[in-house]
Amino acid sequence: xxxGPRGGTADDSFAFTCAGSPAVRVVLAYDALGQRYxxxxxxxxxxxxxxxxxxxERARAALxxxxxxGWDGTPKCEVLPLVLDLLYSGDPDGAWxxxxxxxxxxxxxxxxxxxxTVVNASPYFAVRE
Length: 129
Hints:
Distance between the termini: 15 Å
Strand order of the largest sheet: 1-2-3
Oligomer: single chain
Number of strands: 3
Largest sheet: 3 strands, antiparallel
Strand content: 15-25%
Order of helices and strands: EEEHHHH
Radius of gyration: 15 Å
């Protein structure tokens, strides 16, 4: 039996991508039967609300005229936190809509694949069932 949130951590799987890399919040719940903590972030989407508000503004601002783009001339590092917070909070459809809305660059599909690959390999990522 998995109980309510008993702990939390951050997933730094994207530490290699950006300066000030996003470390996404992870909610853990204790599995008494397995005697271990398991990722349970999608069960607590309300905990992501403050980050999502901040991340949305950051992503919007990245596309404004005169915004400082990243090392590759794109706002990847400004959009990635929003996409990650949406994914970890259990809203993959919202994550991909946000990517489409805030990242209108030709490598968007490759960027999505990269995000999916890293997230799906993370022991801290949980899919809502």
